Amino acid sequence: MAIVTFTSPMMHKDKAVYAVAGDTKTILALAEDNRIPIPFECRDGNCGSCLIEVSYDNPEKKKAIMLTDKEKTTLKELGKITAEEIENAEVKDMPPRYRLACQFIARDEDVTITFTGTPGGS
Ligand code: FES
C-alpha cells in the first residue's frame, strides 16, 4: 500500500490517501475519488490539463517508469520534459519531475503530487 500525498494552493491542507497495491488507478482517478481538484479535460494524455509535479518520498527505491507515447508528446509540447529526461526514465528508471495525472498509475511507492489548479500549470 502506497501513500499518495496531494498538495496544492487550491487545497486548505495537504491530503494523504492510500493507493491499494495492484490497483491500476491513475493518479487522476485517485484524486477524483478523494475530491482533490486536479484540473482535467481529455483524460487521455492529449490536453496537458492534468499536469502534476511528482516527488518520490523514498527516491532510493527505484521502479521502472512507464511513459506512454501520448504522455511524452504532451509533456514535450508543454516544455515539461526533455529528451534526456525521457531517456533517463526509460533506460535508468529515473523518474521525470512532471507527469500527467491521467496517465500516471499509482504504484507501490510513496509520492507527493503537487498541482497549481491551473490547467497545465503545475
Ligand atoms: Fe488531458 Fe490528462 S486530462 S492530458
Structure commentary:
The chain is an alpha+beta fold and about 120 residues long. The protein has a single domain (about 1-115), classed as Beta-grasp domain (Ubiquitin-like (UB roll), Roll). Helix content is about 20%, strand content about 20%. The chain is built from three helices and five strands. The protein has helices at about 25-35, 70-75, 85-90, and strands at about 1-5, 15-20, 50-55, 100, 110-115. The chain is globular. FE2/S2 (inorganic) cluster binds near residues 41, 42, 46, 47 and 100.
In summary, what is this structure?
With 122 residues, the chain is α+β, with helices and mostly antiparallel strands. It has helices spanning 27-33, 69-77, 83-92, and strands at 2-7, 15-19, 51-56, 98-100, 111-114.
CATH superfamily: Beta-grasp domain
Distance between the termini: 26 Å
Q: Characterize the main sheet.
A: 5 strands, mixed
Structure class? alpha+beta
CATH topology call: Ubiquitin-like (UB roll)
The helix content is 10-25%
Q: Count up the domains.
A: 1
Name the features.
122 residues; binds FE2/S2 (inorganic) cluster; single chain; Ubiquitin-like (UB roll); alpha+beta; 5-stranded mixed sheet
Outline the secondary-structure elements.
Blueprint: E1 2-7, E2 15-19, H1 27-33, E3 51-56, H2 69-77, H3 83-92, E4 98-100, E5 111-114
Parallel strand pairs: 1-5
Antiparallel strand pairs: 1-2, 3-4, 3-5
Bound molecules: FE2/S2 (inorganic) cluster.
